[in-house]
Amino acid sequence: MPTPLNTLQNANAADHLRVRRTITAEFSPRRLAQWTQCAPEFVDNLIASLSGGEVDLVTEFAVPLPAAILGQLLGLGDSERETLLGWANSTLVPADGEAPRARDTLATMRAIIEATIDHARSGPTDTVLARLVAGYDESSAQQRDELVALLFYMLFVWYEVLVDLISGAVLALLCHPEELRVFRADAQRQLAAVDELLRYLSPQVLAGPRFATVDVQIGDHTIRAGQTVLFCLASANHDPDHYDDPERLDLAKPRSPHTALGYGIHACLGTALVRTVAATTLDRLFTRWPDTMLAVPEDEIRWRSGFRHRGPHALRLVLA
After folding, report:
1. I need a surface site. Which of 74, 98, 136, 160 has the fewest CB within 10 A?
2. pLDDT of 70-99, one tens digit each?
3. pTM as predicted
4. Helix 159-175 vs helix 271-288: crossing angle, to nearest 10
């Protein structure tokens, strides 16, 4: 990842903590609670746009949803929302079936970030975005890079994860009807059920790369200084030494700890929002259309399996 997009990812511990606090100030428990309460409204609006019958859940719901949430949450302008959605459509559901390489979309991402900053400086001041931008000194190159990296994280890093979680979770529940019954039977446990779906699906396969600064010994393996390490979140989530029968989806289990959204100081800041949006989507979808079924056989569903993410390329359903 080129500078400045990698600034947050590669920051030393002190700088990383300082920048992270910038986000946590906006995503305080009180403010996050307000947004998680609003999440059903975004979901309901998109659910209402589905007319029933045969639909592609990926293109008609899963991809537009994060753009709608981010637009409202951050206070994006209409132009920035449309450009962000255009990026998502071209990257996640390209018309010709050939998704561009991630590095080929970096210029588009950077342009969206720059337009977002410009809008924040000239638009309404009482938005998450405006407050974040106002906290950085435009004349400082270091602070400018940190701001760009921060917006890169907030606009793009979790977008694909949410898309893949929603489509993958709907597919998993349709293929495991007994687990769908478990999900619908107890509304109080739906967030816990989403945790198990996150563990089982692991929509983000790999964490961001880490770089050894000194030789590190882990078990029988020596990681040399300068080497790059990729942590496989999906493998950790299916570790038979940690989980009983890890290949089985079990929504009735009391708790399902996982690494699907990272861990420790690098855990996703939007975890609460992601869980709430996913739970709300599954609840609303199967409440309105309880007899929903796949429009094609399961073995004909193609998966968009990239280097770091995986999810259905398309998910054609019959809403009933």
Report:
1. 98
2. 888 888 888 999 999 999 998 888 776 666
3. 0.91
4. 40
